[in-house]
């Protein structure tokens, strides 16, 4: 799911690697998790105003931006050793805000909008199983990514997030203001380019 488990489970390691002292770790983690709580509240308001699809679309784009920014900050640390660690921390905070205000709350709103009463329970079940499988992968793969890829450890998650964005654009309809029957008709027509940017 875009590497959120990597960030959450290994944030202390990531922050230490970018130069945050262990003494300041508690403060930076409190700030990061507080940002996530506030961003989740914002997500609820955004989903209510713009619909789950648009929040998911924008949140995924911001997530990609933060992953690219983090990778650049890690790969180019030697060019600006005092600036790049700060940029890495900023990119993680952008990532956490984008996750909490974008993908985390909107993905289940979209799932509720694209399913019918008959299949919604099963779809939430499949989503929960998928979530836990990816959480397991996200928990056990990152140490090896950090060891092997070092500065490029977020690259596999970046690729995954880009694939998610392509799926959102080409396979999900913008559900805002549409009836369930209209959405199901769109799905029965096969793949389509979504009207995500339509007014």
UniProtKB/TrEMBL annotation:
| Keyword Transmembrane helix recorded | yes
Mind telling me which residue stretches traverse the membrane in this protein? 26-48, 55-80, 86-111, 123-145, 151-172
Cite the entry's keywords alphabetically. Answer: Membrane, Transmembrane, Transmembrane helix, Transport
SUPFAM superfamilies, per database record: MFS general substrate transporter
- GO BP annotations listed: D-glucose import; dehydroascorbic acid transport
- Compartments where found: Membrane
Q: Name one GO molecular function term.
A: D-glucose transmembrane transporter activity
Keyword Transit peptide in record: no
Q: How does it sit in the membrane?
A: Multi-pass membrane protein
Domain Major facilitator superfamily (MFS) profile spans what residues?
1-176
> Per the annotation, which location comes first and is thus the protein's main one?
membrane
Classify the source by domain of life.
Answer: Eukaryota
InterPro entries (alphabetical): GLUT, MFS_dom, MFS_sugar_transport-like, MFS_trans_sf
Give Gene Ontology CC terms: plasma membrane
Q: What is this protein called?
A: H(+)/hexose cotransporter 2-like
Supply the source organism for this entry: Ciona intestinalis (Transparent sea squirt)
Name of the encoding gene: LOC100176687
């Amino acid at each position: 799911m875009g590497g959120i488990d990597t960030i959450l489970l290994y944030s202390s390691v990531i922050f230490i690697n970018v130069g945050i002292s262990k003494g300041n770790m508690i403060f930076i983690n409190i700030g990061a998790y507080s940002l996530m709580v506030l961003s989740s509240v914002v997500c609820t308001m955004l989903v209510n105003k713009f619909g789950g699809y648009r929040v998911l679309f924008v949140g995924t784009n911001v997530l990609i931006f933060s992953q690219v920014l983090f990778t650049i900050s890690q790969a180019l640390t030697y060019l600006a050793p005092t600036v790049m660690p700060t940029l890495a921390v900023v990119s993680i905070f952008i990532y956490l805000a984008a996750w909490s205000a974008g993908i985390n709350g909107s993905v289940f709103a979209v799932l509720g909008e694209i399913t019918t009463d008959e299949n919604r329970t099963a779809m939430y079940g499949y989503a929960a199983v998928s979530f836990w499988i990816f959480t397991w992968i996200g928990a056990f793969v990152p140490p090896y990514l950090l060891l092997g890829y070092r500065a490029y450890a977020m690259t596999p998650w970046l690729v995954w997030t880009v694939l998610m964005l392509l799926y959102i654009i080409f396979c999900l309809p913008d559900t805002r203001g549409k009836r369930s029957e209209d959405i199901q008709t769109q799905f029965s027509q096969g793949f389509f380019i979504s009207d995500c940017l339509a007014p």
